Amino acid sequence: MIENIKPMDIEKRSFEIITEMLGGRIFPPEEEPVIKRAIHTTADFDYADNLVFSKNAVKKGLSALKAGCDIVTDTQMAKAGINKSILEKLGGRVHCFMSDADVAEEAKMRGVTRAYVSMERGAKIEKPCIFAIGNAPTALIRLRELLDAGEIEPALIIGVPVGFVNVVESKELIISSNAPYIVARGQKGGSNVAAAIVNALLYQIMR
């Protein structure tokens, strides 16, 4: 039977259904909105188990956003999906260097991916940044290299690339690092999930 629900109530009802389908599972209060928004975005309940958080990851992400941090992402799709009106009210911006001609040229010259070079560009931003990676494992690999070299101190790494080549391994590199992280273990993820996690944090601030 089709429910007669007003447009503004659809999301609320969706989250009620997600809660019902989770069958009474309890999550840490700060992590619950992130997990449920990932499920809401994908209709995939595996995120209840495969999203892993470093200690105080959500708290650190929220603090950085409240302080006006920027966000660096690896796809235009993730950039488009992030709620920029809220972010800009907090003093932040979203950056995606993937389409920049000089990034493409440098990547070709060096024989690396554009995502690899893009993370280097993000590391040069002179303010705290959250890195939201939904597509490219090489972005996470380069972030780990920059971390190990002491060249970057991310406010948070959201590591949710999707796929089959180096995806699992790149996520584990972030999990074993000393950076704050929210990572979707395994092969699942995507730009929509990266944006959803950022938005889950932004919506907690604006509640």
Task: Explain what this protein looks like in three dimensions.
The chain is globular. It has a single domain, classed as Rossmann fold (3-Layer(aba) Sandwich), CATH 3.40.50. Strands 1-6-5-4-2-3 form a six-stranded mixed beta sheet, sandwiched between helices. The model has no long low-confidence stretch (mean pLDDT 94). By secondary structure, the protein is an alpha/beta fold. 51% of the residues lie in helices and 11% in strands. It has helices at residues 10-21, 32-42, 47-50, 57-66, 76-81, 84-89, 101-110, 114-123, 137-148, 167-175, 191-206, and strands at 51-53, 70-73, 94-95, 129-133, 156-159, 181-184.
**Spans with pLDDT under 50 lasting ≥5 residues?**
none
What summary fits the major beta sheet?
Answer: 6 strands, mixed
The radius of gyration over CA amounts to 17 Å
Count of all domains: 1
Order of helices and strands: HHHEHEHHEHHEHEHEH
The DSSP helix count reads 11
Through-space gap between termini: 32 Å
CATH architecture: 3-Layer(aba) Sandwich
Across the major sheet, the strand order is 1-6-5-4-2-3
Content of β-strand: 5-15%
Q: Could you name the CATH topology?
A: Rossmann fold
The residue fraction in helices comes out at 40-55%
Mean residue pLDDT? 94
CATH superfamily: Cobalamin biosynthesis CobH/CbiC, precorrin-8X methylmutase
The CATH class label is Alpha Beta
Question: Structural class per helix/strand content?
Answer: alpha/beta
